[in-house]
């Protein structure tokens, strides 16, 4: 293995987090491999990244109905999904051709980038194996492509919707694409190191690097659930959110900005509270922690929540008071949390590891 291309995009941190996990696994398998990174949005042209990020943020925060409509339209009208993918594929593919080089293996973590890779593959300009890691728990039509070598989903329940997107697409299940530090570990030891109370019910709240959604409402509901609950809220780069939460002035509430120790906090937690189901959900799954999806964000967030609940890995809390009730239920019924944790552990065991998925993609024995 000589050169590996990771094609990601800075749209929050989720796609890059998946790329870092894949790069880590590549170095484990092939220590001499050269890893090259490209940001699909940067490839598509100057200003494309900031524009697309602003559109995404605006849709989620201010016009979720528009985001829902676009998501619904991709499923409702096959011609619309196909035309959108052809347009973005040609846009990204033409520009990608100028900087692609001759990689021996291509790993994509962003759907528009995968569209460009398929455009190149259709024209015979990309002989290297191509794998796309679908970091959303629920695939949607923009994620799945028929001409690449593998579309990697996160759980067997995600295979039917992926095949529904593109019936002839090659789909396989991957272990969660997270860094190796995200794995089941010593909860008590993690709490001692992080200064968290040993006997508390620790709820880790993480809604991505942008701190999207009803995070303050989640913190208030957790504080109201039970006197033993210690919410640890990671605000990412959302400094305004951190200031708002600190004004709650409850000694149990721990408010963090950006942290490089998400793995430690995840291992220390009894439950992970999130609203999108992307990287944070996968990290919780990799650590065998149950997930509470609180007021999932529009479109992909709601789809991820439904599918994670179907897999027995999450409880969905959409209305006022449901998060409080769910936490009380988990505290009063320890067997429920144990069932969810065991479901995550079974999946981790059955999915193998990330190295297996990379070996299979590269045509090596697993």
Short description:
With 366 residues, the chain is of the alpha/beta class. It has 16 helices and 12 strands.
Structure description:
This is UDP-N-acetylglucosamine:LPS N-acetylglucosamine transferase. By secondary structure, the chain is an alpha/beta fold. The protein has 2 domains: 3-174, Rossmann fold (3-Layer(aba) Sandwich), CATH 3.40.50; 187-349, Glycogen Phosphorylase B (Rossmann fold, 3-Layer(aba) Sandwich), CATH 3.40.50.2000. Helices cover 49% and strands 15% of the residues. The chain contains 16 helices and 12 strands. It has helices at residues 14-29, 40-43, 48-61, 64-76, 78-99, 111-122, 159-165, 187-194, 215-225, 239-246, 262-268, 279-286, 300-310, 322-332, 334-351, 354-361; strands at 3-8, 34-39, 105-108, 130-133, 150-153, 171-173, 201-206, 229-234, 254-256, 271-274, 291-294, 314-317. Strands 2-1-3-4-5-6 form a 6-stranded parallel beta sheet, sandwiched between helices. Helix 1 links the parallel strand 1 and strand 2. The longest helix is centred in the first third of the chain and has 22 residues, at 78-99. The chain is globular, with a radius of gyration of 20 Å. 50% of the residues are buried.
CATH fold description of the largest domain:
Rossmann fold
Shape: globular
Structural class: alpha/beta
Helix count, DSSP H or I runs of 4 or more residues: 16
* CATH arch. level architecture of the largest domain: 3-Layer(aba) Sandwich
CATH class value of the largest domain: Alpha Beta
Uncertain regions: pLDDT < 50 for 5+ in a row?
A: none
Rg from alpha-carbon coordinates: 20 Å
The main sheet comes to:
6 strands, parallel
Q: How are helices and strands ordered from N to C?
A: EHEHHHHEHEEHEHEHEHEHEHEHEHHH
Mean pLDDT: 94
Query: How many β-strand stretches?
Result: 12
How many structural domains? 2
Give the spatial strand order of the biggest sheet: 2-1-3-4-5-6
Domain Glycosyl transferase family 28 C-terminal: 203-343
Family: Belongs to the glycosyltransferase 28 family.
Domain Diacylglycerol glucosyltransferase N-terminal: 32-157
Pfam families: Glyco_tran_28_C, MGDG_synth
């Amino acid at each position: 293995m000589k050169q590996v291309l990771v094609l990601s995009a800075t749209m929050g941190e989720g796609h890059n987090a998946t790329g870092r996990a894949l790069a880590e696994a590549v170095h484990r398998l092939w220590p001499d491999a050269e890893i090259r990174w490209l940001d699909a949005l940067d490839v598509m042209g100057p200003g494309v990244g900031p524009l697309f990020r602003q559109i995404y943020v605006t849709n989620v925060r201010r016009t979720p109905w528009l985001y829902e409509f676009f998501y619904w339209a991709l499923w409702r009208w096959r011609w619309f999904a196909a035309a959108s993918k052809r347009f973005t594929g040609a846009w990204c593919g033409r520009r990608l051709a100028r900087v692609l080089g001759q990689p021996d293996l291509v790993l994509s973590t962003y759907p528009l980038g995968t569209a460009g890779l398929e455009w190149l593959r259709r024209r015979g300009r990309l002989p290297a194996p191509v794998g796309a890691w679908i970091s959303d728990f629920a695939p949607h039509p923009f994620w799945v492509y028929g001409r690449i070598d593998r579309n990697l989903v996160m759980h067997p329940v995600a295979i039917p919707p992926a095949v529904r997107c593109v019936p002839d697409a090659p789909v396989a299940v991957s272990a969660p694409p997270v860094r190796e530090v995200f794995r089941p570990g010593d909860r008590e030891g993690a709490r001692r190191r992080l200064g968290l109370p040993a006997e508390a019910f620790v709820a880790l709240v993480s809604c991505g690097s942008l701190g999207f959604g009803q995070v303050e409402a989640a913190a208030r509901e957790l504080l109201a659930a039970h006197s033993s609950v210690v919410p640890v809220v990671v605000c990412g780069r959302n400094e305004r959110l951190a200031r708002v939460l600190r004004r709650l002035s409850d000694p149990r509430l721990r408010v963090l900005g950006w942290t490089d120790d998400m793995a430690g906090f995840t291992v220390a937690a009894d439950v992970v509270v999130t609203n999108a189901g992307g990287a944070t959900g996968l990290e919780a799954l990799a650590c065998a922690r149950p997930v509470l999806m609180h007021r999932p964000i529009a479109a992909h967030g709601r789809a991820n929540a439904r599918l994670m609940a179907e897999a027995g890995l999450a409880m969905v809390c959409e209305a006022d008071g449901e998060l409080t009730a769910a936490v009380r239920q988990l505290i009063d019924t320890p067997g429920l949390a144990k069932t969810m944790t065991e479901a995550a552990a079974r999946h981790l065991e059955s999915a193998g590891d990330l190295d297996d998925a990379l070996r299979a993609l590269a045509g090596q024995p697993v």
